[in-house]
Amino acid sequence: MTVREMLKLLESGKEAQFPLRLVEGMRLSDYLNQLRNAPYIQHTLSDDRYETVAQALKLENPEWLEGWFWPDTWMYTANTTDVALLKRAHQKMVKAVDDVWEGRAEGLPYKDKNQLVTMASIIEKETAVASERDQVASVFINRLRIGMRLQTDPTVIYGMGGEL
Hints:
Pfam families: YceG. The protein has helices at residues 3-12, 28-37, 50-56, 82-102, 113-126, 133-145, 153-159, and strands spanning 17-22, 72-77. The protein is mostly helical and 164 residues long. Strands 1-2 form a two-stranded antiparallel ribbon. α5 (113-126) crosses α6. The longest helix is centred in the middle third of the chain and has 21 residues, at 82-102.
């Protein structure tokens, strides 16, 4: 970079941006670990407990955290807070879920949006093949309608605290 280019950059006021990649299917604990290890982030969360995160995001129910962060590569500048990044990812996910919830088919066995997100996560973990997801979803919906357990590996693995 020449001196002239450097002066133009300084004059423009542009700031360096850094990427933080929140990968689809990862747990909130993984996201928090990524935030903790990302450079130039201002860490404001006192700990990684879900209650702490829910309080920082001003959410009433900490159970509505897992699966509620939009996976993407989020760009941030130096001194952005961990909470600010989580808020952005959470708000985008809430918007997407609201849109899906409003357009959902009648008669689905989900009592609330959290059940919808949970089922979407289970379906995604059950098959990595996008073309199979409709069929897997249909099987699970039919099981729920007759009061049957899902009997799927992702639910057992998650319940045991393992990686999905």
